[in-house]
Fold this protein.
Amino acid sequence: MKIVDIITIPLEAKFRIPSKFALGTRTQSFNVLVKIISDEEIIGVGEACPFPVYSSETGKSIIEAIENYLKPALIGKDFRHIASLNNIMDKVLSGNNFAKSAVDIALYDLVGKYLNVPVHMLLGGKFRDKIEVNSSVAIGSPEEMAQKCIEMVDRGFKYIKLYAGRDSLKDDIARLEAIREKIGYKAQIYLDINQQWSVSDALKSINELQKFDILFVEQPVPKWDLMGLKEVKDRSPIPIAADESVDTVQSVFQIASGRYVDIVNLYVQKTGGIYRTHQAISLLEATNTQCFMGSLLELGIATAAAVHLACSIKNLRLPCYLAGPERYLQDIIKPPLHISDGYIEVPTGPGLGVSLDDDIVDAMRI
């Protein structure tokens, strides 16, 4: 029941088409696969999917953090004590939540396999067998975005995330007009602004855009401007969500207890893994703050971790953004997680409930 080795494998995962949003354009992702090996030869797997402009971590920094700090601290420890191991990681290395998340996910996978139970059973069980998910449409021309929305509706998605705020308000209005003209109200829409607005811009834009029946607006102002975020929330006719403003359990507590937003978007990576994210979910439930699981378009391992977390949320009223695996040319798991009619089923096998495709891992290895 001891950890005997931790292996890091750098991967290059290519997107099917470029993903354009306010913070940049992604054509590929440099992910890190983590394997934790026990003395009983059970292997747990985890994944980090950094996007440096968002995470501040890179594939290289994640590998260095794990190899130089986390691995030496965890070798020889009992893998079953996940809470204790998370505390050890925090003691030997500040921040670096994406690196810690990859290790934490692998620990949960390992313990689940050891006990022959799915990860959600380690979180108290599940409230649902499948998770409603939304897709997203990258920034483009009004015609391009409208066509993509038609495709999403035809596939059964009832919720669509649109990126906005990068260009002028006039441009965003033109895009939403084209989209509503094409799909009507067959899908609910929410906007991800990625910190692009000031408080005054946010209030002006939201008042103009509310006529398009927007479900909520995500991270309208810079992540550091919590007072501005609260002002927008208090004055907005549309619910406001935090994303970049919450990257630790402590920041979740601050946001929720201060009533800065209506909704919090949680990622398994940005809060440091399954253990810390589950703590964040409990905090949000205690303050009656809505939350949902988001992503940075991870591959199947980290996405599976997010699915297990999503099924453990008691009052999950919003769709989860877990469409990452289908955006890549290849995924590293088999069988792949499948989205059908806007839902993804919760894996029921031991651990994460998914298996690595070693041939594809080898092909992606850098």
User: Anything to note?
Assistant: The CA atoms of residues 185 and 329 lie 31 Å apart. The first helix runs from residue 52 to 55. The mean pLDDT is 96.
